[in-house]
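the two lines:
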Amino acid sequence: MSQIRSIAPVSDADAARMVSDAALADLAEQITMTPAGPTTANRPPRVRRRRWWLAGIPAAAAASALIAAVVIAHTGGSAAPGGTGQLRHDAHALAFTRAGGYIDVIVRDPLADQASYNAEFKAHGLDITLSLVPVSPSLVGTVVAISTSGPDGDSITTITAKGRCWTGGGGSECPVGLKVPVGYRGQAALVFGRAARPGEQYESTTSASAPGEVMHGLNYVGKRVSTVRAMLSERHVTVPTYRYDGRVLTPGQVPGTWYVYDAIPWAPQQVLLFVGPTPSHAYGAGRPAPSPSHSPSG
Amino acid sequence: MWWVSKGATLRYPQPGGPDERRHRFEQMYAANCGPILGYVLRRTENPDDAADVIAETFLTAWRRLEAVPAGDEARLWLYGVARRVLANYRRGERRRAVLADRLRAELAAGYRPAQCTGELAEFAAAFRSLAEADREVLALVGWEGLDRGQAAAVLGCSRNAVRIRLHRARRRLADARGRQQANPPGEPVSVTKGEPA
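prediction for all of em together
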């Protein structure tokens, strides 16, 4: 067995060094913000409690939804209406279809203004609001988040469409709408992805090589920064910011001889590159030692 | 920080005050996230998948917290869940959980598996040529350091079945090594399909 032990690619101690306490704490916090699932016997009924769940989490099929959504920090979090500034008041920004005991809601016009959506929900007797945030191209029209409250809080589910977006790991089930029970009495706030304006930073994004994204089809992982910059230049894509070992670097701080590990869309025709001085991912430099809370006994 | 995982759109106030259930989950999580991280990273070469498997494993624990045993058995329970989630990933069922964003980003930057060289690399190749069931029982003992009773808890079988599976897996590993040594360098080791006991 000792020989088997010696071929373990990663020890628990190695694993603890690869992630920060903050990332682990973040995951725990995200998880405990989701509904507890069907077994909630120990929880007091709190119908008025407002809670958020991420579209991808409760429904297995929708879980692919939010993709590698490395969501870029974006103060403001506009949820701004309209993709181009123009307001559209024509009907049918949303498509409502009665199916069995549910109303299916699909976003038909991702550039409509928020008031149009809300009016259409209201016309259908639903206390639901919809806002839009800028997302990378392959995620336009998909559900970014749902907040529900009230007695029927958890009864809204997502409608997924295969191939509508790409999840970075090969999956392609993406939420494109909501399934609302007829007679829904709760309140809900939906956040959908819309196209970004030129220069506008994405709030939700996916792999830069996903179909529909600017680096689709490029083989860039492990290539030198100078090589990838040349590839991007041909596609008129720029790199306003880089990440190295968790640190933000400007283009001038990144030598062309470094290597590219990963890329995510940043804004229209802009990507963020994860880079480092070694051909493959390295860790350790500048990284704090793992704290005891990583240890098995922690 | 650039990677606020939920960004402005998804980072909403955490509801509720002190919550016994959440507290119990957090204690269980703190005690086990290291071992689960290690377990998953030893079994997938893709850090993106690893982040999602870890997230899905603990999400399952959160949603089924009442089913999670107390104490050290929680770790074995979690290994079992992680094993099933990994199996789904191997079958191509991938889920990108947005709640794993930050973990995914850090693992993408920090994942660096140890590289074996020389004879150890050959041994590793022989190990990888085994069927998943054989690898898993060997790894639970060799990598996670479990005894047979603990491995049985993870695999959902009897201690005796683990004993038999270990015996067969070791034999098939030895066979794979034998074939390796018989084959000229560069020829692939044929895959041995193991049958669970």
